[in-house]
Design a protein that fits this description.
By secondary structure, the protein is an alpha+beta fold. It has helices at about 5-15, 20-35, 70-80, 95-100, 145-160, and strands at about 40-45, 50-55, 65, 80-85, 110-115, 125-130.
Length: about 160
């Protein structure tokens, strides 16, 4: 994807006073960093023991329980980054496919990277990016560099998103 400027994104998010605009800057940055459409990135915040979708808006009324049965719940509970380059073989909650509609129909998620958003003593939420396609061969795999990128984005989210 090329070199992403985290410093510049961090500065923009840090000076933004409106929470919804900080979120928009983050999700736009995530989409740009991974070469994805904005609907293919997710921001979830832990609230009252569940993960609440902050983005995409189509899922804003949805929650994910913090259990090992969901990718997001596992990411949060274990405070660990997960990269699934074979998501079609992993049991997961198919919210994107069901609720985030696209022109021409929804494509299944083939690959996903899921990262906890760091907080002071425990995660504050989860960031996810997914690559969709008719088959796994139609979606580029996530790399170690992508993992490093997601960790950097999560640090920005933890530092500035809910200030």
């Amino acid at each position: 994807m090329g070199q992403f400027n985290f410093s510049e994104l961090g500065k923009k998010i840090a000076i933004e006073t409106i929470a919804s605009e900080r979120l928009q800057l983050l999700v736009t940055g995530m989409a740009d960093a991974f070469g994805l459409e904005i609907e293919d990135v997710t921001v979830m915040e832990e609230t009252n023991g569940v993960l609440v979708f902050r983005h995409p808006k189509a899922l804003s009324k949805s929650t994910v329980p913090i259990t090992l049965k969901s990718v997001a719940g596992q990411t949060f509970k274990n405070n660990k980054v997960y990269v699934y380059n074979n998501l079609n073989e992993i049991q997961h909650v198919e919210l994107f496919e069901q609720f985030v509609r696209k022109e021409g129909g929804a494509l299944p998620i083939q690959r996903m990277i899921s990262c906890p958003i760091p907080g002071k003593n425990s995660p504050r939420g989860v960031l996810q990016a997914c690559r969709k396609g008719k088959s796994r061969d139609n979606a580029d795999p996530f790399t170690r560099a992508d993992t490093d990128t997601m960790i950097s984005l999560a640090k920005l989210a933890g530092a500035y998103l809910w200030k």
